[in-house]
Design goal:
The chain is an alpha/beta fold. The chain has helices at 44-49, 74-84, 114-119, 176-183, 211-223, 250-255, and strands at residues 3-7, 29-32, 36-38, 61-63, 88-93, 120-125, 130-133, 136-146, 152-159, 164-168, 187-193, 227-236, 259-260.
Length: 267
Amino acid sequence: MELRFLGTGAADWPNKEPVDGAFYRHHASMLVNGKVLIDIGPGIVEYLKTIPDIDFGNIEAIFLTHTHEDHWSTDELGHLLSLTRKKIRLYFHTGAKNNLDLCRDSIHGHALSNNHLRQVVLCPMRRWQIINASGLSWQNLEANHYAPKGERGSHYIISDGTETWFYGLDGGWFTTKTWDILRSTCFDGMVLDGTVGENSADYRIAGHNSLAMNSLLKKAMLHQNMLKAGARLYLSHFGMTTYENSCDIREKVEEAGFMEARDGEMA
């Protein structure tokens, strides 16, 4: 499975790269096998244009974790649709439907044009549902993270029959059923929420993880035999202000037994 980090920052990173070339993280997003986007927040499509081997004609689906505006932008979707000129399947938990705002201007951007609306194929997923899409198996899990109108975020188990990965950004401690499902699987890799970092007093602690929380999770997952030998464990969705130095955190993340996700890098 080919996994490329497109964005590794939390919502407190600005929507546009600084003009002075300072260190920057785009909002959290990932490209899977060159075909599937996980989340499409502000700036992601422009960033994709800077990656030489990206073929927009290959992108055929988007899996949405939730509709907070750093993860979901109708402006960005419209930009992508203009480049692909093909139908895109949009997968989301049923609880997110009322927050998609495809047909009206909102905090997520402008309403899609009629032509763009015809390109979008809405694919709602039930909680815990497993589907096959773009040659992969996807299971929707419940995240400990809320969005407007009662929406609860989604994590995903992704498998190609050889490798199995977990994508779990924007979520604090796992809910009981999500944990039970994770315990029944042995993973080749995981992408875990690293928002709160070293600042365990940060207000976001209830819906995100700190470095200390992730260390406890790793210990539990090893004890429960949830990780294959050599499993790759990445932290992503880093807060801009939750590490002492936001552009040089790799050493501390690695000391805790994880790898730091960076924009543009392969997992």
